[in-house]
């Protein structure tokens, strides 16, 4: 029986401002550099400010616009949060693994973040999804084995990383299909 549900944040709990930014400003000349900078930031190798400065240099986009599009454009998936509250009342351990370059508390409201007693932020862990290392670290924090958990992420690569770590995973597409698939796994 599954005891824990592990969520990704960006693209699941919140819309992903960085991906929207990439869709607008990424091109064949800067794609590799932008993705590398994002990986460095998520891993904690460079600060959020350094990341923003370097992205600005690569794209020519102002710092103000970068900050507005990547962090202030985030929208909470309120319907999913209601379902998560239901999962909590049913006794499931809820937690988050997220690739992020700064504290998650900068993005999620306190009452929502409070639903997740265990949070693994990539910049603090110095490893990123889909590396199996971050999943093993998170399971250790939970005190559970991989077979006790289900991982939910919008990225298939990150779901594949969880599977390599022995964790059942679900790729998030939309709330309705997630609820159906998750309920089937929780049986």
Verbal overview:
- The protein has 187 residues and is of the alpha/beta class.
- It has helices at residues 17-25, 31-43, 48-59, 63-72, 78-89, 110-113, 122-125, 132-142, 156-164, 175-186; strands spanning 4-7, 93-98, 118-121, 149-153, 168-171.
- It has a five-stranded parallel β-sheet, sandwiched between helices.
- Strand 2 (93-98), helix 6 (110-113) and strand 3 form a beta-alpha-beta unit.
- It is globular, with a radius of gyration of 16 Å.
- 32% of the residues are buried.
- The mean pLDDT is 94.
List the helices and strands and how they pair.
Blueprint: E1 4-7, H1 17-25, H2 31-43, H3 48-59, H4 63-72, H5 78-89, E2 93-98, H6 110-113, E3 118-121, H7 122-125, H8 132-142, E4 149-153, H9 156-164, E5 168-171, H10 175-186
Parallel strand pairs: 1-2, 1-4, 2-3, 4-5
């Amino acid at each position: 029986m599954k005891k824990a549900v592990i969520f990704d944040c960006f693209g699941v709990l919140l819309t992903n401002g960085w991906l929207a930014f990439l869709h607008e400003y990424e091109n064949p000349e800067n794609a590799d550099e932008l993705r590398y900078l994002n990986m460095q930031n998520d891993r904690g190798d460079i600060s959020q400010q350094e990341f923003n400065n370097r992205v600005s240099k690569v794209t020519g986009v102002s710092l103000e616009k970068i900050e507005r599009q990547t962090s202030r454009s985030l929208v909470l998936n309120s319907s999913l949060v209601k379902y998560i509250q239901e999962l909590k009342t049913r006794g499931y351990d809820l937690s988050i693994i997220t690739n992020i370059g700064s504290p998650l508390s900068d993005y999620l409201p306190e009452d929502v973040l409070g639903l997740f007693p265990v949070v693994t932020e990539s910049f603090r862990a110095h490893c990123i999804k889909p590396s199996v290392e971050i999943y093993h670290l998170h399971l250790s924090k939970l005190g559970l084995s991989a077979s006790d958990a289900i991982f939910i992420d919008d990225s298939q690569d990150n779901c594949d990383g969880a599977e390599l770590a022995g964790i059942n995973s679900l790729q998030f597409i939309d709330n309705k299909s997630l609820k159906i698939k998750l309920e089937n796994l929780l049986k």
